């Protein structure tokens, strides 16, 4: 019998061997820290964050086997045995022949974009991601969103909101010509839509259409293990297949992938680019030498190559990915039961709050999602991520702010790092803020705005006193005292 059957939050398939203390903070400390950070929680010192849900990228807990692999890592500059272990793991579990390590996912995106994109190119994809689109635009390309319309509706409860709208893709091909499309950029799952999966049936249709036009398909594989789990749970005909088998089937429908191993593979750093075409692989290796390091280490220490390889093996274990997704679902259920608006269905790595609905009194030009991240920190020392107009940036032609339909706050759960009690603490804070939402009727304005990826470095000032003072009656001290 499955020990997790019928349990709202099943026991984790691991036990804790090492702990990291987290320091309580007072309401006064949080007010001062947020003001010093320019009301951008990404600029807060981590020691002043009680529960850090900013990202699941490199923030999870590595296993004892991964730490053992770290100690056994081969630090040879060229041809390290750690590289060959990583290469073998990618080939076995993802199925790509040519593997080029890079220090993280955006580094792999940079190499791929420099290899394939030229000025005037058009890159269709199932919703943008921040770094992916930035590399595409910096190399002269234009991104086109071809995701299904329902992905932009937080309340549309469909099993595969990451799917491509084939009609949109065909129209783009007809309009610009297949020769101007270097590849189709697909994410599985789709982060900016709320961690939504793409179905294998839809991916197969994309593959057939692109094959007819000679257009490659490149996968963002950072959370494809999570995507495989959702296929197993939701797509007819796949319930009896293993996550590992579904992962291979997914990748088999693509020509290559970029990977941030800081997500599904549990590593604190690392990534790779993998392709089937030998000529493209040689181009990528040459550029990796310029930007990352020799093609057998790609900016990574041998110990990290070994940790990633071990993490790949652990990532496809059924009990591991089940627990991961169920922890996220538990937090979502607690929040949704209180009427808090969230993106549905719930994805595998985060709960996404619908900030526009949460704070209806804050105008879009005053950045409701950024405002809500500040309120969460002031209330309980929780750091979350803005995924709305600040992340969307400005139109490179008009210079105007982009206002995506989704104005979200992402509560991103690091893997194997927090307990059910932490999830309850987060839920209590979100519910408390939602009850006080009428107190926040104005948001933020920029005091400093960088040209690229502005959400990382921007600074703001509040347009009312409510963000300076914080929510009503916040806990004076967070956690045990």
Automatic annotation (TrEMBL):
The molecular function terms in GO held by this entry are: tyrosine phenol-lyase activity
Q: Which InterPro entries match?
A: ArAA_b-elim_lyase/Thr_aldolase (IPR001597), Beta-eliminating_lyase (IPR011166), PyrdxlP-dep_Trfase (IPR015424), PyrdxlP-dep_Trfase_major (IPR015421), PyrdxlP-dep_Trfase_small (IPR015422)
Instruction: Please provide the Gene Ontology terms (biological process) for this protein.
Output: aromatic amino acid metabolic process
Organism lineage reads as: Bacteria, Bacillati, Actinomycetota, Actinomycetes, Streptosporangiales
What is the similarity comment for this entry?
Belongs to the beta-eliminating lyase family.
The EC number(s) given in the record are: 4.1.99.2
Tagged with keyword Lyase = yes
Q: Which SUPFAM superfamilies match?
A: PLP-dependent transferases (SSF53383)
Q: Where is the Aromatic amino acid beta-eliminating lyase/threonine aldolase domain?
A: 52-428
Record PTM N6-(pyridoxal phosphate)lysine, positions in chain? 263
The cofactor(s) it depends on are: pyridoxal 5'-phosphate
Q: What class of enzyme is it?
A: lyase
**What name does this protein carry?**
Tyrosine phenol-lyase
Q: Which PANTHER family would you find in this protein's record?
A: BETA-ELIMINATING LYASE-LIKE PROTEIN-RELATED, TRYPTOPHANASE
Q: Does the keyword Lyase apply?
A: yes
Going by the UniProt record, its keywords in alphabetical order are: Lyase, Pyridoxal phosphate
Specify the species. Answer: Actinomadura rubrisoli
């Amino acid at each position: 019998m499955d020990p997790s059957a019928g349990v709202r939050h099943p026991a984790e398939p691991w036990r804790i061997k090492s702990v990291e203390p987290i320091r309580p903070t007072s309401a006064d400390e949080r007010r001062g820290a947020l003001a010093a950070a320019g009301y951008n929680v990404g600029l807060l010192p981590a020691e002043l964050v009680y529960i850090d849900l900013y990202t699941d990228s490199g923030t999870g807990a590595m296993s004892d086997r991964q730490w053992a692999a770290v100690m056994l890592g081969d630090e040879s500059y060229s041809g390290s045995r750690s590289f060959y272990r990583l290469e073998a793991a990618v080939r076995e579990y993802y199925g790509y022949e040519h593997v080029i390590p890079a220090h993280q996912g955006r580094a792999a995106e940079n190499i791929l974009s420099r290899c394939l994109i030229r000025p005037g190119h058009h890159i269709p994809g199932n919703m943008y991601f921040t770094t992916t689109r930035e590399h595409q635009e910096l190399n002269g390309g234009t991104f086109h969103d071809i995701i299904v319309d329902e992905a932009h509706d937080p309340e549309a409860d469909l099993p595969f909101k990451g799917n491509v709208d084939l009609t949109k893709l065909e129209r783009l091909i007809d309009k610009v010509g297949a020769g101007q499309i270097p590849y189709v950029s697909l994410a599985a799952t789709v982060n900016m839509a709320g961690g939504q999966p793409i179905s294998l049936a839809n991916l197969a249709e994309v593959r057939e259409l692109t094959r007819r036009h000679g257009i490659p398909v490149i996968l963002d594989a950072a959370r494809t293990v999570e995507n495989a789990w959702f296929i197993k749970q939701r797509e007819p005909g796949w319930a009896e297949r293993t996550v590992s088998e579904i992962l291979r089937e997914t990748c088999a429908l693509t020509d290559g992938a970029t990977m941030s191993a800081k997500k599904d593979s549990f590593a604190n750093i690392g990534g790779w680019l993998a392709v089937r075409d030998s000529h493209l692989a040689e181009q990528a290796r040459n550029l990796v030498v310029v930007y990352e390091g020799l093609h057998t280490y790609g900016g990574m220490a041998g110990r990290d190559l070994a940790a990633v390889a071990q993490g790949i093996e652990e990532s496809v274990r059924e009990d591991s990915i089940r627990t991961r997704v169920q922890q996220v679902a538990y937090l979502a259920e607690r929040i949704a039961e209180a009427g808090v608006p969230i993106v549905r269905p719930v994805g595998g790595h985060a709960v996404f709050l619908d900030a526009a609905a949460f704070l209806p009194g804050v105008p879009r030009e005053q950045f409701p999602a950024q405002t809500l991240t500040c309120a969460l920190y002031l209330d309980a020392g929780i750091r979350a991520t803005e995924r709305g107009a600040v992340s969307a940036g400005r139109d490179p032609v008009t210079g105007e702010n982009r206002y995506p339909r989704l104005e979200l706050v992402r509560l991103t759960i690091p893997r194997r790092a927090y307990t059910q009690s932490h999830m309850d603490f987060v839920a209590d804070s979100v519910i408390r803020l939602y009850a006080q939402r009428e107190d926040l009727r104005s948001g933020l304005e920029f005091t400093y705005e960088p040209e690229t990826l502005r959400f990382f470095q921007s600074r703001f000032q509040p347009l009312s006193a409510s963000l300076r003072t914080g929510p009503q009656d916040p806990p004076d001290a967070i956690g045990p005292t």
